[in-house]
TrEMBL record:
Residues 122-198 form the Calmodulin-binding domain. This is Calmodulin-binding domain-containing protein. Residues 244-314 are annotated as: Disordered. One of its GO terms (cellular component) is membrane. It is found in: Membrane. It comes from the Eukaryota. One of its GO terms (molecular function) is small conductance calcium-activated potassium channel activity. Keywords: Calmodulin-binding, Ion channel, Ion transport, Membrane, Transmembrane, Transmembrane helix, Transport. It holds the Pfam family CaMBD.
Length: 314
């Protein structure tokens, strides 16, 4: 479809295919009226008493010129009128050829009708061949009967049957020749159909090859296109990151606070009895060790009824 140019020529071909009779009728009538008006306008001031002085006379002149009749009762006197009549004659010959072609195409049998016609002709020829063969056998038997089986040979009757025998042979040969011609036409028609199908297949294969070549070229250019696209996106992303860093400034956003290191538990005093360690593990209260010098004073014990908020650590 990409190779078809949608111009005036294509439109005219389409119209001639869809409605040829209407197109030819409209074209002929339009040409007839325009040419008659042109001839009338060209010869209006040549002679007031001329036959082309009115529109009907001009239309008569154009019609006989268009149909290539040319009675000679009317002639144009001006060069413009003569040129119009010449162009009208040429266009009339072309329109006549188109009308003949359209009528012949309309009267042509379709493919199904041709198959039916060939089948009927084949059946008729087969019957004629059988009749001719039967006539040959009959005349052969009659000749044999009147020459071999008869006691007295009647030469006139024998010659009569011999003539009929030769006519039957000639008729049989002619019918067989017609059957051969019909078969040859059928084979030619089949060959033409096969050639048309082969041409259609070749065109389809060429179009498929062109599409495959286009797809191959597209696939070949795809890696480069993807690489260029990814490079452009990467560059744009880098620019966005740089712009964001530039807007944030040198201080930068506040980072997360570092976690405090866990305070190690105080080591056990040297020489502490083992049973105290076991009591600590079991959760039993033990007397507090003596405070070292310079250490802060321990908090007083909580009063009775006051909840103990401190948690014991093992």
């Amino acid at each position: 479809m990409t190779k078809v140019h949608f111009n005036t020529r294509f439109v005219m071909k389409t119209l001639m295919t869809i409605c040829p009779g209407t197109v030819l009728l409209v074209f002929s009538i339009s040409l007839w009226i325009i040419a008659a008006w042109t001839v009338l306008s060209a010869g209006a001031y040549h002679d007031a008493q001329d036959v082309t002085s009115n529109f009907l006379s001009a239309m008569w002149l154009i019609s006989i010129t268009f149909l290539s009749i040319g009675y000679g009762d009317m002639v144009p006197h001006t060069y413009c009128g003569k040129g119009v009549c010449l162009i009208t004659g040429i266009m009339g010959a072309g329109c006549t050829a188109l009308v003949v072609a359209v009528v012949a195409r309309k009267l042509e049998l379709t493919r199904a009708e041709k198959h039916v016609h060939n089948f009927m002709m084949d059946t008729q020829l087969t019957k004629r061949i059988k009749n001719s063969a039967a006539n040959v056998l009959r005349e052969t038997w009659l000749i044999y009967k009147h020459t071999k089986l008869a006691k007295k040979i009647d030469h006139s009757r024998v010659r009569k049957h011999q003539r009929k025998f030769l006519q039957a042979i000639h008729q049989l040969r002619s019918v067989k020749m017609e059957q051969r011609k019909l078969n040859a036409e059928r084979d030619v028609r089949a060959d033409v159909g096969l050639n048309d199908r082969g041409e259609d297949l070749e065109r389809q294969m060429l179009s498929l090859e062109q599409r495959v070549e286009q797809l191959t070229a597209g696939f070949s250019a795809l890696p480069a296109h993807l690489s260029a696209t990814l490079t452009a996106q990467h560059t744009a992303l880098l620019h966005l990151l740089r712009d964001r860093d530039g807007r944030a400034g040198p201080s930068g956003p506040p980072g997360p606070r570092p976690r405090a290191a866990p305070t190690p538990a105080p080591p056990a005093a040297e020489g502490q009895p083992q049973h105290q360690l076991l009591q600590l593990l079991r959760g039993s209260p033990t007397p507090a060790p003596p405070a070292a010098e310079g250490s802060p004073t321990p908090a007083p014990p909580a009063a009775e009824g006051q909840p103990n908020t401190s948690s014991s650590s093992c």
